TrEMBL record:
Belongs to the aldehyde dehydrogenase family. Keywords: Oxidoreductase. It comes from Rhodococcus koreensis. One of its GO terms (molecular function) is oxidoreductase activity, acting on the aldehyde or oxo group of donors, NAD or NADP as acceptor. This is Betaine-aldehyde dehydrogenase. The lineage of its organism: Bacteria, Bacillati, Actinomycetota, Actinomycetes, Mycobacteriales. The keyword Zinc does not apply. The keyword Ribosomal protein does not apply.
Length: 493
């Protein structure tokens, strides 16, 4: 594929921002790193360099945590209404600058501009507003006289300094999902974005600095092994929120446990999609195609693992192939592009390796090979006849890849769906409400969609069951992760 030169003017927005990133964002300003090492950030559509960010040291993490600690008491002392107003102002600024941040996120992460500007970022702005408002109505057990002679008062307090380690698939969305509930409830924050996608977080740091007091939100760039690890185990950090792979999550969890601090984990999935014989096939196919190809399948809830009733196999595969062939891969700033590149050469290699490791019975009926040319493009891919125990089924793929398995009975479908270590998301397509109700009940997943897939709102909880995570993001439950409940008992005699 030959890439057009579309968007060279628009790309200058990102180049300008990259030029301003001269260090980490600590205590309200760009601060030089104590480490001479840097990370080179590439444009995944072209493979060309965008800029460099510091490969920060543990000393840089120390400085950021110290700034967050200093700012925390003052931030926590504000009323919920005052904090909410600050956060709403950030949402308004983000909305005003939607075009700019859309270009930055689209180019840096490799996302089609239309998807970022029209779907993802409006959702991010809504999440900012959701958390800003929700923190004004925090629930707690009611205060009262539970024992004779004493009165009990319940207080929901911030935990203190929160730290976040974000992945590269939804850099700004993930940052907001972690930072906003924490700030709304009176915590201050240190965030380390992923190596390949630092710039929307850098942009957020500058926007936040126009609104919030210094030190409330700090950003440190760097590798997971050095900066991420130092942040997760830092003794002055009170809660860590991580989104990424199970293997890295385990390391972050161990580092957090070392300091006896809370860790919230969102660790990926390989979502089963059960299509019963009585499903409305056309609308199921539409939802599954979007659910599996959105963000080039780099989505931990992607509709990747289709389990279809044997009677529908041929019609389903034909319909999915037709939908895949309609997609347009290309430069992310071309408004007609529907699928962008994978985020990095490494990610493309990982996806290809999983497909190449398939068993002899598995047939690739669409895609399956790297696209030629610049950038890290990979086509929509369908693999039919996969065995239940193979890597493509058992492990997260994180690319535009569907596997298709068949079933005869409801019990078989449920067993296949529940048959991996993941438990993040799933979906069921059927026209029978009884089937839908029984099956959702039997599925071990934090999210079950019925006749739909990959539909979100900040109001709704995301919880990983099994190896997919610990704790909840979004919704009231996500907000409460950043609070601690204090019981005050007063002798009233
Ligand atoms: P990937 O391998 O695709 O980069 P990861 O789950 O390893 O996915 O990365 C998600 C985030 O975790 C990134 O910000 C990365 O820098 C960070 N990370 C990687 N290793 C560690 C670690 N040992 N400790 C803390 N954070 C880490």
């Amino acid at each position: 594929m030959t890439l057009s030169t579309i968007g060279s003017d628009q790309r200058s927005v990102l180049r300008t921002l990259a030029g301003r990133v001269t260090g980490n964002f600590i205590d309200g300003r760009w601060t030089p790193s104590s480490s001479p090492d840097t990370i080179t950030v590439l444009d995944p559509s072209t493979g060309r360099e965008i800029g460099t960010v510091p490969a920060s040291s543990a000393a840089d993490i120390d400085a950021a945590v110290a700034a967050a600690r200093t700012a925390q008491p003052g931030w926590a002392a504000l009323t919920p209404a005052a904090r909410s107003k600050f956060l709403l102002d950030i949402a308004t600024l983000t909305e005003e600058l939607l075009e700019e941040i859309s270009i930055i996120e689209a180019v840096d992460a490799g996302k089609p501009i239309t998807a970022v500007r029209d779907e993802e970022l409006p959702g991010v702005i809504d999440a900012m507003r959701f958390f800003a408002g929700a923190a004004r109505t925090l629930p707690a057990p009611s205060s009262g006289d539970y024992l004779e002679g004493v009165s009990s008062i319940m207080r929901r307090e911030p935990v203190g300094v929160a730290a976040g380690i974000t992945p590269w698939n939804y850099p700004l969305l993930q940052a907001v999902a972690k930072v906003f509930p924490a700030l709304a409830t009176g915590n201050t924050y240190v965030l380390k974005p992923a190596e390949t996608t630092p710039y929307s977080t850098a942009w957020l740091a500058e926007i936040v600095a126009r609104v919030l007091p210094d030190g409330v939100f700090n950003v440190v760039f760097g590798t997971g092994a050095v900066a991420g690890d130092a942040l997760a185990r830092h003794p002055k950090v009170d809660v860590v929120s991580f989104t990424g792979s199970i293997e890295t999550g385990r390391k972050v969890g161990i580092a957090a446990a070392d300091g006896v601090k809370k860790a919230i984990m969102e660790l990926g999935g390989n979502s089963p999609v059960i299509v019963f014989g009585d499903a409305d096939l056309e609308s199921a196919l539409d939802a599954i195609a979007i659910g599996g190809l959105y963000n080039t399948g780099q989505e931990c809830m992607s509709a990747s693992r289709v389990i279809v009733h044997a009677s529908l196999l041929d019609a389903f595969v034909d319909g999915l192939k037709a939908r895949c062939s309609r997609e347009k891969l290309g430069d992310v700033l071309d408004p007609t592009t529907t699928i962008g590149p994978l985020n990095s050469a490494q990610q493309r290699d990982r996806v290809l390796a999983k497909i190449e490791a398939r068993t002899s019975g598995a047939r690739v009926v669409a895609g399956g090979e790297n696209c030629e040319g610049d950038g890290f493009f990979f086509p929509p891919t369908i693999v039919v006849g996969v065995a239940d125990d193979e890597e493509l089924v058992q492990e997260e793929i994180f690319g535009p890849v569907f596997t298709v398995q068949t079933f005869e009975t409801e019990e078989q479908a449920i067993a296949l769906a529940n048959g991996t270590r993941y438990g993040l998301a799933s979906s069921v397509f059927t026209s029978n409400v009884g089937t839908a109700t029984r099956v959702q009940n039997a599925l071990n997943f934090g999210t079950v969609w019925v006749n739909n897939h990959l539909v979100f709102a900040a109001d709704l909880p995301v919880s990983g069951f099994g190896a997919s995570g610990i704790g909840t993001e979004n919704a009231e439950a996500g907000l409460l992760e950043y609070t601690r409940l204090k019981h005050v008992m007063v002798d009233n005699r």
